[in-house]
UniProtKB/TrEMBL annotation:
<dbReference type="Pfam" id="PF18305">
    <property type="entry name" value="DNA_pol_A_exoN"/>
</dbReference>
<dbReference type="InterPro" id="IPR002121">
    <property type="entry name" value="HRDC_dom"/>
</dbReference>
<dbReference type="Pfam" id="PF01612">
    <property type="entry name" value="DNA_pol_A_exo1"/>
</dbReference>
<protein>
    <submittedName>
        <fullName>Ribonuclease D</fullName>
    </submittedName>
</protein>
<dbReference type="InterPro" id="IPR041605">
    <property type="entry name" value="Exo_C"/>
</dbReference>
<dbReference type="GO" id="GO:0003676">
    <property type="term" value="F:nucleic acid binding"/>
</dbReference>
<dbReference type="InterPro" id="IPR002562">
    <property type="entry name" value="3'-5'_exonuclease_dom"/>
</dbReference>
<dbReference type="InterPro" id="IPR044876">
    <property type="entry name" value="HRDC_dom_sf"/>
</dbReference>
<dbReference type="InterPro" id="IPR010997">
    <property type="entry name" value="HRDC-like_sf"/>
</dbReference>
<dbReference type="GO" id="GO:0008408">
    <property type="term" value="F:3'-5' exonuclease activity"/>
</dbReference>
<dbReference type="InterPro" id="IPR012337">
    <property type="entry name" value="RNaseH-like_sf"/>
</dbReference>
<dbReference type="Pfam" id="PF00570">
    <property type="entry name" value="HRDC"/>
</dbReference>
<dbReference type="GO" id="GO:0000166">
    <property type="term" value="F:nucleotide binding"/>
</dbReference>
<dbReference type="InterPro" id="IPR036397">
    <property type="entry name" value="RNaseH_sf"/>
</dbReference>
<dbReference type="GO" id="GO:0006139">
    <property type="term" value="P:nucleobase-containing compound metabolic process"/>
</dbReference>
<dbReference type="InterPro" id="IPR051086">
    <property type="entry name" value="RNase_D-like"/>
</dbReference>
<feature type="domain" description="HRDC">
    <location>
        <begin position="230"/>
        <end position="310"/>
    </location>
</feature>
């Protein structure tokens, strides 16, 4: 097992990647042009590099506003999914190819929305994590592995802008320019480290996973919610969040551009009784239109009128174990199991140069520690981990160490 190292000498200066090899392709925005792209990519060979640009922070939701592809024999393509919202024919044209995506969990949902779903996948970001690279963004990975520098100054722009400026299109085309080369280099590095099979199991799991459903109580993801201590105030957060979400969806803007999370929490803490009191809350100053202030105040008033037995619970309902901070009081032996398992997994993570959360998700570790198998030993722990969705490579590495931690916790409890 070799340590994860950069694929180029540290002293070598990265070469700037400034222009796509065939120039900036025209943006595909009609059915005729899309048909030509579908034919070209169906005739191509090998993996297909895929990327998508969203307008996070500008628009409501996470839809794609530009999709980039590149394949040997096909060249590169830039597609406007707003003008061409059904890309299922393109998805079918490349369905037998391996897709090369960087940070697949970010792009696959919006690609699925337009009819593009991979059957096989290589995630260069996840490959970098498993290979032990400290920085796994596309820019650092391209630089460290291929010796090429990618400019990333347009990564956070408003991709819903039309027409898209030429520098943005150049940036987008370059994002897939060397993605397959990065994939090939990472495959070699993973193979040298004895980790290629691990990565392939992870990629297959991502490709086969169903799309996640909507979150329960998404309003609980409001930043700074930890400041709220009373259930009535939680109801205020919920009502304000719901009003903001409807307004954001109607206007197709990011919810944070309608009202900041901090303003929602401030209002919940203050519980204003009238417009003047609401205007005194930070985030609801004189620039907020009177009609909007009335809407926000009405939301606060609705929260005031909710019957006590219908207020939101202090913590989000969940089917998992309690928060780890409560384990020592509720079940000291389980707390000892968790402490030992975490230490064992951290040691494995250091030994194999893999982030601990990639060796085993923290949620899986908590669940198996709270409800351990009735039979002792690595085989029983392995079965429990598989039952919680762990991949075989993870089970092979982690089960013996976790079983040993469980045995140590049980022995200590008997002393």
């Amino acid at each position: 097992m070799t340590d994860a190292v950069a694929a180029i000498p540290e002293e070598a200066a990265p070469v700037p990647l400034l222009e796509p090899r065939e120039g900036i392709p025209p943006v595909v925005a009609d059915e005729q042009a899309l048909g030509a792209v579908v034919a070209a990519f169906a005739a191509g060979t090998g993996p297909v590099a895929v990327d998508a640009e969203r307008a996070s922070g500008y628009r409501y939701g996470q839809r794609a506003y530009l999709i980039q592809l590149r394949r040997a024999g096909s060249g590169s393509a830039l597609i406007d999914p707003i003008a061409c919202p059904d890309l299922s024919a393109l998805g079918k044209a490349v369905e037998d190819a391996e897709w090369v995506v960087h940070a697949a969990s970010q792009d696959l949902p919006c690609l699925s929305d337009v009819g593009m779903r991979p059957q096989r996948l290589f995630d260069t970001e996840l490959a970098g994590r498993i290979a032990g690279f400290a920085r796994v963004g596309l820019g650092p990975m391209t630089e460290n592995v291929l010796g090429l520098s990618l400019s990333k100054e347009h990564s956070a722009v408003d991709w819903s802008t039309r027409p898209l400026p030429e520098p943005w299109l150049r940036y987008a085309a370059l994002d897939v320019e060397v993605l397959v080369e990065l994939r090939d280099a990472l495959e070699q590095e993973l193979d040298a480290q004895g980790k290629l099979g691990w990565a392939m199991e992870e990629f297959a799991s991502i490709a086969a996973a169903p799309r996640p459903g909507p979150r329960n109580d998404p309003w609980r993801r409001t930043s700074q919610l930890h400041k709220i201590r009373r259930r009535r105030q939680l109801a205020v957060v919920r009502e304000l969040w719901l009003v903001r979400d409807r307004m954001a969806q109607d206007r197709d803007v990011s919810p944070g551009r309608v009202l900041a999370d901090a303003a929602i929490v401030n209002a919940a803490l203050a519980m204003p009784l009238n417009i003047a009191a609401l205007q005194a809350v930070q985030g609801f100053g004189p620039r907020v239109h009177r009609r909007q202030l009335e809407q926000w105040l009405a939301a606060v008033q609705r929260a005031r009128e909710i019957p006590e037995n219908m207020l939101p619970p202090a913590t989000a309902p969940h089917d998992g174990p309690p928060p780890p901070r409560a384990w020592a009081e509720k079940d000291p032996v389980a707390a000892a199991r968790l402490s030992g398992a975490r230490a064992a997994i951290s040691e494995l993570a250091e030994r194999y140069h893999v982030p601990a959360e990639n060796l085993m998700t923290p949620d899986t570790v908590r669940r198996v520690c709270w409800h351990p198998p009735t039979e002792p030993g690595p085989e029983a722990v392995a079965a429990a981990l598989r039952g919680f969705g762990a991949r075989q490579w993870q089970v092979d590495l982690v089960a013996p160490a976790v079983a040993a931690a469980f045995a140590a916790a049980a022995a200590a409890a008997q002393d």
